[in-house]
Amino acid sequence: MGVTVQFRSRVQNLILPRAGFFMYKAYILYSENFGRYYVGHCADMDARLLRHNLKRVTSTKAFVPWKVVYTESFLTRSEAGAREKAIKNKKSRIYIEKLIGSGTGSHVPM
Description:
single chain, alpha+beta, three-stranded antiparallel beta sheet, 4 helices, 3 strands, about 20% strand, disordered N terminus
């Protein structure tokens, strides 16, 4: 009787993720009550949104509730962080609103 061993290296897991599976997201939140946007990145969007809405994020706690209005998916944290930085560097509400309306990422209608 033989034993079958399945082996998959860590490198293979990074290079060949399952189709449609992304590890990190750059995201935009919107606070309807205050008309404000927040840009960030994370690995777990649901957990991160919960932290924002439970007032556990210093920069957003005064403006709850938040809702996700836009996301972009990336394979690496550095890519998601770079995209967050690129959006923030625009320093433009108009740019953010065009991005949300562009259909280039996943977004939820406001």
